[in-house]
Design a protein that fits this description.
The complex is a heterodimer of chains A (594) and B (328).
Chain A (H helix, E strand, L loop, with lengths): L14 E10 L5 E10 L4 E5 L6 H7 L8 E10 L2 E2 L5 H7 L4 E4 L3 H4 L6 H7 L8 H10 L6 H4 L8 H14 L4 E5 L7 H18 L2 E6 L2 H7 L2 E6 L2 E7 H6 L4 H9 L47 E4 L2 E3 L29 E10 L2 E11 L4 E6 L5 H9 L5 E7 L2 E2 L9 H6 E4 L13 H12 L4 H14 L16 H13 L5 E5 L7 H18 L2 E6 L2 H7 L2 E6 L2 E7 H6 L4 H9 L7
Parallel strand pairs in A: 3-8, 3-9, 6-7, 7-8, 15-20, 15-21, 18-19, 19-20
Antiparallel strand pairs in A: 1-2, 1-4, 4-5, 9-10, 10-12, 11-12, 13-14, 13-16, 16-17, 21-22
Helix pairs in contact in A: 4-7, 7-8, 14-15, 14-16, 15-16, 16-17
Chain B lengths: L7 H30 L4 H6 L5 H11 L5 H13 L13 H22 L1 H13 L4 H15 L2 H14 L22 H30 L2 H8 L4 H31 L1 H7 L4 H10 L3 H29 L12
Helix pairs in contact in B: 1-14, 5-9, 5-14, 6-7, 6-9, 7-9, 8-9, 8-12, 9-11, 10-11, 11-14, 12-13, 13-14
């Protein structure tokens, strides 16, 4: 039954990729290897993988492009009957933007800031004659305002969601055979994301466009794609119909990945994948997933497995794909309803906050119990991060009262007593930016301790070692610098830096949003354990609604500077009362439903 | 009074012009104080030790040195504003008459440098950025560095040796003209000074253009433009250049402000009747009214060039002039 799938270009396929290989320039080391798939007109393939898996490299290679330092060295990419990889520069220019187009990850940087939207849209028509009405029609296709003034606007004058719609309109303008979408909804809030996904789905169906949707987000894939290809370390490890791959994942990596994804309807306990993906230069001789695989056998070490068919249209790159594993359904830990008596740890009364003259928070009342974890959710601009910054003293233009442990909490950390500064610690969103690159991890972690206590060097080393243990980083990391560490390790170091002063409240600002899901799950497990073991209270700011089931007992839903709903997570998610909550739940991609 | 609020440019120019006037006022204060601060008797400092008491007295009367400083300043500044910067101490002619032709000669020289020197510098910067890391890029960069390292007069003398004396004898080695004659009557004498100054400003403009173009070429929107399959010319000149030019415009403005007064040596080598040479002569003869006037003219040029640069930068940077779009 096992047959090695050799993708042969088929006449009916819109896009057919065979044995694509992209190398690190000069080194002969493949970043992407043995990638083959086919797409029919109107079909959407979700290309899923974590950072470094090579998914974006594949997406760009479909347009015959490789980023600097990389080179496409083998295989073929046929759009219709043309092999993109065998065209001259001039022919390639004719195909790009015409037969195959590209939607960038971040339209904020991918639209030219110096050119009007109309100019950029018109050039996407590739010289087809177009009246202004035709161009306005492109706007209407993506539900943008169909007025000439919009065409005359510059990209920075419109919102992020509108920018992404412009990019999508550009991609579909020339009625291409295929579109590559590179994580086009990253950075958009759930509502905008859901509208953009609708638009993509509608346009692909209406114009019969084959689409490759590159993403790290399984939930988005579940709602959008007909088929899924899961990439790991430069190769496709599993490819098949979306419903099959997501419900009966066969490759151990796919299975682990799915368990790591928070879901509104799924289990509460997330399981991360220990370890990290190997760098292209240090892949093991056998299967690349081997070091992290729970079911490896000695034969896995021999050679990289090839893609084998396990069911019709379902191929898996694992020699143990015949082993049936019962999907380990983790019983969801019912979130302990925290109805503790006694005075709350943090109490906020009629808090208002301002940026210049704009009122960002318009009267917030909130109480957080000892040892409780509360999620702050809302769209971007709802004021959730500002609230977190007010509490931690980073934002001080405020009006209203805050009490911490019965004491008044002053506005601005400089005005606070040493003790209250120690008790409230803040963890930033982006671990790539929040650690000083010129300080070793050990120094970075020790810095807050030096600030609050005078300790001997020996004591300092001991306590740094202790917190490193608690966040499951090796003690060797103390001597390393941030660039030696992966994103997940950096975020753990940032958590260690907050933990070392024994805080009673951790304010976590989107701490997992810059991380891969497998790493996100590991961080969530860690925070959960810290809450259980040390009784630390947490305020968890996030736009990721499914995630709050795993990290919080209580949730506050925010909208335009107000809390519109507040309650236990399971009540709010199952019986939302505020319209905003209902909308957020509807717009969040549900992935096990598919 | 809000006619100008509608135009970002008008608002910018008005605001900058007000600041510019303030700058000029401060410069004039400094320049004027210099005459007051000369040690001892200004008249003696001007005329030297051998001056007779009669001449000293005459000079004091001419400069109104016995009046209070405020009155002197008011009289001088009032004269400037009404177009009369005073009388030269050296030959008794009006200063305006003396330096007027020099200012126009210098402006012609700078205008020609702007016309013929700057576009090639910009184009070479773009070219080097496009060929980054290749041999053609490094060769242009090495030439630019060598030019930046060479003193201006060395470049000038080198060009004279090459084109006027030793190798070829195509062009006049000096740029002297008869008084009363316009510099434009003798285009040939302009060639070498223009070439020299172009080479002097080339390295700065080239390096800035190359650096900012490289940054732009690596941006997401250039990758996007490439993936749209646009022609190389459209890619570079429509998508790249407007985003890369702003820092270069600032450098050009600074270079020009420097060239206006700072290339005395070059003017000296060619005996070019420009404003820099005029300043040197005035200093040598302690012709205070002329010095004051030239320094103020240079400051005015500096202000004007910078306003122009800001306007150009705003015109290529929509972010600086357009507010958030609202559905009409």
């Amino acid at each position: 039954m096992k047959e090695i799938l050799r993708a042969v270009p088929q006449p009916h396929a819109s896009v057919s990729v065979a044995d694509l290989r992209v190398d690190l320039n000069g080194a002969g080391i493949p970043i992407v290897d043995e990638v083959s798939f086919e797409l029919a007109a109107g079909e959407i393939l979700g290309l899923v993988g974590e950072s470094g898996s090579g998914k974006t490299t594949v997406g760009m290679a479909l347009l015959g492009h490789s980023r600097s330092g990389l080179r496409i060295t083998g295989g073929s990419v046929c759009i219709g009957d043309k092999d993109v990889l065998r065209l001259s520069e001039r022919e390639l220019r004719a195909v790009r933007g015409k037969s195959i187009t590209y939607v960038p990850q971040d339209p904020g940087t991918a639209l030219n800031p110096a050119l009007r939207i109309g100019t950029q849209l018109r050039e996407s028509l590739k010289g087809q004659p177009a009246t202004e009405a035709d161009v306005l029609q492109l706007l209407s296709d993506v539900k943008l305002p169909t007025v000439p003034a919009f065409l005359a606007a510059f990209p920075h004058q419109v919102s992020g969601g509108q920018q992404q719609r412009v990019a999508i309109a550009m991609a579909f303008a020339s009625r291409p055979a295929a579109v590559v979408l590179d994580e086009p909804t990253t950075g958009l809030d759930v509502t905008t994301q859901s509208h953009v996904l609708d638009t993509i789905r509608r346009l692909c169906a209406k114009h019969g466009v084959a689409a490759v949707y590159v993403t790290h987000d399984l939930a988005v894939v579940a709602t959008l794609a007909n088929r899924v290809a899961v990439m790991y370390s430069g190769r496709i490890v599993e490819i098949g119909p979306t419903s099959v791959v997501l419900t009966e994942p066969t490759h151990p990596y796919t299975r682990a990945l799915i368990r790591a994804v928070p879901d509104l309807d799924g289990p509460i306990l997330l399981q991360g994948i220990p370890g990290q993906a190997p760098a292209p230069t240090s892949r093991p001789k056998g299967c690349a997933f081997l070091p992290r695989c729970p079911m490896s056998i000695p034969a896995c070490m021999a050679a990289p497995p090839s893609l084998a068919r396990v069911a019709p249209y379902h191929d898996v790159r694992c020699i143990r794909s015949d082993v049936r594993v019962q999907a380990a359904v983790t019983a969801g830990r019912e979130s302990a309803s925290v109805e503790r008596i006694g005075p709350p740890l943090l109490e906020i009364k009629a808090l208002r906050a301002f940026h210049g003259s704009a009122e960002i928070l318009k009267g917030i009342d909130l109480a957080l119990a000892h040892g409780c974890s509360m999620a702050l959710v809302g769209e971007s601009g709802s004021g959730k991060t500002t609230l977190a910054r007010c509490i931690s003293g980073l934002h001080k233009k405020i009006d209203g009262l805050m009490y911490y442990d019965g004491q008044i909490l002053a506005a601005g950390s400089r005005n606070r007593a040493v003790e209250s500064r120690r008790q409230i610690q803040y963890i930033f969103q982006n671990p790539y930016a929040s650690l000083n690159p010129r300080r070793s991890i050990g120094e970075a972690i020790a810095a807050p301790l030096r600030e609050f206590e005078s300790v001997s060097n020996e004591e300092l080393r001991r306590r740094v070692g202790e917190v490193l243990d608690q966040v499951a980083l090796s003690r060797r990391a103390a001597q390393q610098y941030p660039h030696h560490l992966s994103g997940g390790q950096r975020q753990r170091a940032a958590i260690a830096r907050a933990l070392i002063v024994n805080p009673t409240l951790l304010v976590c600002d989107e701490v997992t949003s810059a991380l891969d899901v497998s790493i996100q799950a590991v961080i969530v497990e860690l925070l959960d354990r810290l809450q259980q073991e040390r009784g630390i209270s947490m305020l968890f700011v996030t736009h990721n609604l499914p995630l709050i089931r795993s990290v919080a007992q209580q949730v506050a839903v925010m909208q335009s500077g107000r809390i519109v709903e507040l309650g236990a997570v399971k009540d709010v998610l199952s019986r939302p009362k505020a319209a905003e909550t209902t909308r957020l739940i509807q717009d969040a991609p549900h992935f096990r439903q598919a | 009074m809000d006619w100008y609020k509608d135009s970002v440019y008008a608002r910018l120019v008005v605001r900058r012009a007000i600041l510019g006037v303030l700058t000029l006022f401060l410069v004039s204060l400094v320049v004027f104080s210099a005459t007051q601060l000369l040690p001892g008797d200004t008249a003696r400092a001007v005329l030297g030790r051998s001056a007779t008491p009669e001449r000293l007295e005459a000079l004091r009367a001419q400069l109104h040195l016995d009046d209070p400083a405020i009155l002197q300043f008011a009289r001088w500044a009032g004269g400037l504003l009404s177009g009369d910067p005073g009388i030269s101490l050296v030959n008794g002619k009006p200063v305006a008459e003396l330096i007027g032709p020099r200012i126009s000669n210098s402006l012609v020289l700078l205008g020609l440098v702007g016309l013929f020197g700057i576009p090639p510098s910009i184009l070479l910067g773009i070219y080097a950025a496009l060929r980054r890391g290749r041999r053609s890029d490094s060769s242009v960069s090495v030439v630019a560095l060598a030019l930046a390292a060479a003193p201006e007069f060395v470049i000038a003398i080198g060009l004279i040796l090459l084109f006027s004396t030793v190798v070829f004898q195509w062009l006049p080695p000096v740029s002297m003209i008869r008084p009363g004659m316009s510099i434009l009557d003798r285009p040939d004498i302009l060639v070498l000074p223009v070439l020299t100054l172009s080479l002097v400003c080339f390295p700065y403009i080239f390096r800035m253009m190359r650096a900012s173009m490289i940054e732009v070429l690596e941006s997401d929107y250039m990758e996007m433009a490439k993936l749209k399959g646009l022609s190389p010319a459209r890619l570079v000149f429509l998508h790249g250049l407007p985003n890369a030019i702003a820092p270069t415009v600032q450098v050009i403005a600074l270079t020009f402000a420097y060239l206006a007064g700072g290339v005395v040596v070059v003017e000296y080598v060619f005996a070019f009747p420009g404003i820099g040479q005029g300043l040197i002569n005035a200093i040598a003869t302690r012709d205070i009214p002329t010095i004051q006037c030239i320094v103020l003219a240079l400051a005015g040029f500096y202000v004007a060039v910078n306003i122009l640069a800001d306007v150009i930068v705003v015109s290529v940077t929509p972010r600086l002039r357009a507010r958030a779009w609202q559905k009409p």
